[in-house]
Amino acid sequence: MSAPTLLARRRHVFEIEDQPWLPQAIRDGVTGYLNFVGNLDAGPYQGFCDALAAGLRATGERELLDLCSGSAGPLPTLISELDRRDVAVRVRLSDLFPNTEAMTAAAAAVPGRITHEARPVDATAVPAELAGFRLLCNAFHHFRPDKARAILADAVAQRRGIAVFEGVGRYPASIVACAITSLGVLATSLVMRPRRLSRLALTWLVPAIPFVATWDGVVSCLRVYSPEELRELLAGVPGADGYTWRIEAEQVGRSPIRVTWLVGFPK
Question: What is the pTM of this model?
Fold first, then answer.
């Protein structure tokens, strides 16, 4: 299969979830949906988990500090995949807008493996006492280049490993898939647990969650950094040449979907 066409350079289009005025019930509904679908299939994470496991072995680190966790995203699946690679990890969830209820539920789903920070954590300036190999799943595109570079620079300055995973990209197939996200939100709202009256009302009576998830999904595709753009960001990070970096846009099976990821750790 020929490589899909990558659209022009990223566009930092308005994304609703970035806005502090977004009601928490809608924000939690969107991140909860992303958490649900992110754990349905381990296929997109195979190459990423291979590289992440290699970085964890090289550094001896066995704790992941998950930044911008939302509702914990695909962390249960990533833990399972790393277990399959004989790299058992513990995960600390964190976010600038921490969803304590969702994080607690994620911890209960994988007993003894997940904890969370109740305080807000800024991914561009992580407190030094928060150790661990840093991880951002489907979140790096939220940041403009200056902030994105600051995230990488903060990890390098503190000599922490860092891994970035994006499940969408500036490819037609990704954009089409995200354009029909509302259908997925409608379907999964009936099977997601625990059931929330607020989530059902904001999905079926006032379809705010499907709208935000669909809009932000398409915009996320336009915002994702390509491998070349990730390398450009690293070029401006002092000390980045003292790291081993792997950056890939990887095709998912035989589908036209591609995921983009970065893994870096001190040499």
Answer: 0.91
DSSP 202: I
Strand segments, DSSP code E, in the chain are 63-66, 90-93, 114-116, 133-137, 162-166, 243-251, 258-266
Q: What is the pLDDT of residues 169-185, one digit of tens each?
A: 999 999 999 999 889 99
User: Using CA atoms, how far apart are residues 188 and 198, in angstroms rounded to an integer?
Assistant: 14
Q: How far apart are CA 100 and CA 1, in angstroms?
A: 43
Quick one: how many helices (H) and strands (E) in the chain?
10, 7
Residue that the structure tokens 């669909």 belong to: 214
Dihedral class, residue 245 (left if φ above 0, else alpha if ψ from -120 to 50, else beta)? beta
pLDDT in tens, 116-137: 999 999 999 999 999 999 999 9
